[in-house]
Structures are given as C-alpha cells and as structure tokens.
Write a structure and sequence with these properties.
hydrolase, 192 residues, globular, alpha/beta, Pept_tRNA_hydro_sf
C-alpha cells in the first residue's frame, strides 16, 4: 500500500487557493480512478483505490497546513508503512506555474505543510511538486497573498489540464517511475 497525501487547507473558502493544489491533485486522482467515497479518519479525509497493481490510500489532512504531519504520521502508523510508501502533493513557489516535478527528500522552501511532515518523519519522502510560480525577485511581500490567493480565471484551463495529466499518468507514479511520470505529463501539456 502507498499513502498519497494532498496538502491544502480545509474549508470552501480555501478551495481555489494556489496553496490547495495538493488537495486538487488528490481530488482528481480520486475522481478519475474511481476511489472509494471520502471518509473521516486520522484527522483527515481518506479514500482507497487502485492504480494498476498498487493499492493507494489518498489522504487530505483536515488540520490546516501547519499541522499536516500529525495526520500523516497517524495514517502511516496505523497501516504500518514507512516514509518510502509516502508521496506528498504540494504547491511549489520555485517552479513555473503548472510544471510538475518529483523528487525524494530536499528542502522545505518555507512550506508549512512540508515542515510539519518533516518534523514528524524526517525529510526522506517523495514529493510531487506542483509549480505555482513566484511573484518575482524582491517581491517577498507578495508571496503570502500569491500563495493564499485564488487561481485567476485565465489560469483555470491550464490548471485543469495539468490536474487531468497528473491523474492520467498517476499509474507511473504508483510504479515508482518518477521520470516517466514527469515526462508523460510534460508531453500531455505540450499537446494542449
């Protein structure tokens, strides 16, 4: 079993925030691949399904971003999984909008959700970094409003295309074929 965690903040008013793109990715994988209905457990919403031969548990912590680590740790402990089974989907300021990169470990880049998981488990977990872009050099004062701002109307189509590509290529991720997952997404997005 693998645990795939989408990071976001719970509540309707946050649903279109760039910071919630991890939740969006979990939702689209859930819907496209016919996962079980969402249930409440581990201070989260969870759903189970299959991607190819892999059993996947989707988890969306309902604790707010800065306390995500507790929910993730509860689920890993319950299912007797280690951090090798964990994949976290999150927004990434340092990636161009709608770019998707995967890596294991690395820094936290000021991301409170990653910081919380790192504090609970350490840094060696797989991350699906979903680019939201940076407001620009010398624009530090604009970072928080950018991250906690809604996607603009003009961004909805590329956002939808990117999320659809993540769901369509998710089986590569489940297989541990991170490079193939990234290249297939890039190819799909080029075609749009």
């Amino acid at each position: 079993m693998q645990l795939w965690v989408g990071l976001g903040n719970p509540g309707e008013k946050y649903s279109l925030h760039r910071h919630n793109v991890g939740f969006m990715a979990a939702d689209v994988v859930h819907d496209v691949h016919g996962f079980s209905p969402w249930q409440k457990k581990f201070r989260s919403l969870i759903a189970e399904g299959r991607l190819g031969r892999h059993r996947i548990l989707l988890l969306k912590p309902q604790t707010f971003m800065n306390d995500s680590g507790d929910a993730v740790q509860q689920a890993l402990r319950f299912y007797k999984l280690d951090e090798e089974a964990l994949t976290v989907f999150h927004d990434e300021l340092d990636l161009a909008p709608f770019k998707v990169k995967v890596r294991v470990g690395g820094g936290l880049a000021g991301h409170n959700g990653l910081r919380s998981i790192d504090a609970s488990l350490g840094p060696e977990f797989r991350r699906v970094r979903i680019g939201i872009g940076h407001p620009g050099p010398g624009q530090k004062h604009l970072v928080t409003p950018h991250v906690l701002g809604n996607y603009a109307k003009a961004e909805m189509e590329p956002l939808s295309d990117m999320l659809a590509a993540i769901a369509a290529e998710a089986e590569w991720l489940a297989d541990g074929e991170d490079a193939r997952f990234m290249s297939e997404i890039a190819l799909r997005l080029k075609q749009n």
